[in-house]
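writing this on my phone so excuse typos. first protein, seq and then structure
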Amino acid sequence: MSDSWIVQNLLNALNTWNEKLSEIWQLLTQSPEEFKGGAIWDVIVAVHGALRAIGLALLVLFFVVGVMRTAGNFAEVKKPEHALKLFIRFVLAKGVVTYGLELMMALFRIVQGIISTAMNAAGFGSVQQMILPQEIVEAVEDCGFFESIPLWAVTLIGGLFITVLSFVMIMSVYGRFFKLYLYAAIAPVPLSTFAGAPSQSVGKSFIKSYAAVCLEGAVIVLACIIFSVFAASPPVADPDAAAVSMVWSYVGELVFNMLILVGTIKMADRVVREMMGL
């Protein structure tokens, strides 16, 4: 490694970025059961089990309210075809509440299949690492003390931007996992609304919102794949330019590309929701 503080500062910032990007790539291939060794998932399963009893009680309530609002009179309820329809609705709603967690994880695995397919189709087993061109390292090392002063400012600001963007990016991906856990924990309550025709729209919205959170992973993967193509062809350093201009041009283009990636990851939720009409 170079002895120059300027080079070391840039390398440290790029290493932080590469580490967070690799962590994101790993997180997107994990399921909630595997995240952090499964300790969080055990808590979520316990909360889900506790709320399942409440969900079943609400299921009966929504079913009764639905029957009262949809049936014109008691004689209509006694009709075999109408009674069978109500019975099937109640059984299906009870099954959704009872096995809601399994159904949600099945949906998550379907989306994970989409993510794996996108990775394999793009031919990326891992994200491309950002590297500092050798031309910049040599140009910085050849600078004298006074020439390096503006470089300190450029690399300090650029390194700070890269580091901050790294943590903003990883926080967005961690936020997706937190939303998955929240949806899984509270699922029995909104799923119980399927028992009544007037209230089933709540359950449908919940499923669509959960599917949107799952699909955020696909949008993030596509954004990382596109960025990896950019990373494979890093900004070209002009060997004839001054060291300050060379570093400024390189850092500026790098930060710009990183901003696009972070912005896409931050907007993944909005993009998916617009696609699903939410």
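second protein below, same order as before
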Amino acid sequence: MCASEMPLRYGINPHQKPARAHVSKGALPFKVLNGAPGYINLMDLLNAWPLVKELTEATGLPAAASFKHVSPAGAAIAAPMSSEVAKASFADDVELSPLATAYARARGADRMSSFGDAIALSAPCDVATAKFIRREVSDCVIAPGYEPGALEILAAKSGGRYLVMEMDPEYAPGEIETRDIFGVTLEQPRNNYKVTEEMLANIVTLRKDIPSEAKRDMIVATIALKYTQSNSVCFAYDGQVIGLGAGQQSRVHCVRLAGAKADMWHLRQHPEILGLEFDEKAGRAERNNAIDQILTDTLADPFAGDNWKGIFAEAPKRLSAEEKQSFLANRRGVSLSSDAFFPFRDSIDRAAESGVEYILEPGGSTRDDLVIEAADECGMVMAFSGVRLFHH
């Protein structure tokens, strides 16, 4: 039986003590199986859990999310991975269950941001998923249950301090939510809007065809946005988030950030990157950071001279701008969802550079006609959902 109150290590910052989690009625909907939660752990996990729950409800497949600072770094359903995606996600050397595949995809969306993540799993954690999590730098996990072997593996992580939480899958929060800001209590109905394919019905572009895979990806992107700090734009492909621009004050900055992450996700599958040979002593985080440095455009070569030693088996080759552009040039089929309307065509033009072909946005801008015109020029399919999905 869960208690109605739980002490926390501290609040958002270590000097904010004491801190606690509590409910006014009934018991807390989760229990701690290992470790001790902090305020930020719960903020991440209690945003990540409904995200994966909704993904599974919408698709019928196991889902996982990798959360950092109250926004998903990645989210995915258990779609099969190609050998290239598996290797780029550091998941090509283990056997993966469907749930483990979902987390490998979620983690692989943005491995830089996922360092030290909070993990949410929509299904009971199996041994394969626990073994994959064990290899990664992560802070905590929440799931509706754990196989005995899986719990044993996770409880031993981080010197026995790894936070493992079990969520009541039947829990439903109240219809009204409140928040205190600077001593003032705000109140509103909870955002219970259900993301479904009905949101795609109002197609406003000349092109009308949306294949089933793109519809799935638009749903994945939109559910991810529902739990992402606004402003936000999400790129999705092959059943997973591949780029998410969160918490930006400008819509086009959201698109630029999401597009840059999506570009990086694709470039990690470049044959030169997949063929890199690492020093056997280099850890997973070091390897991941090195790939990011190789793919990031800077004037200085981060691995000039002997700087590559201890990370690579031999000096790595950096891809030129022309090589990267050539590799990315033929991308198509990427889906994009936006939590609010696009006020200018600049976001559409930038999205096209990253292979976006399908867009879902609320519509309602005074410049909708110009945004639709831009989508038509780019050969895109755009639907207006009529629903804004800000999350703060």
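The mean pLDDT is 96. thats all i got for now
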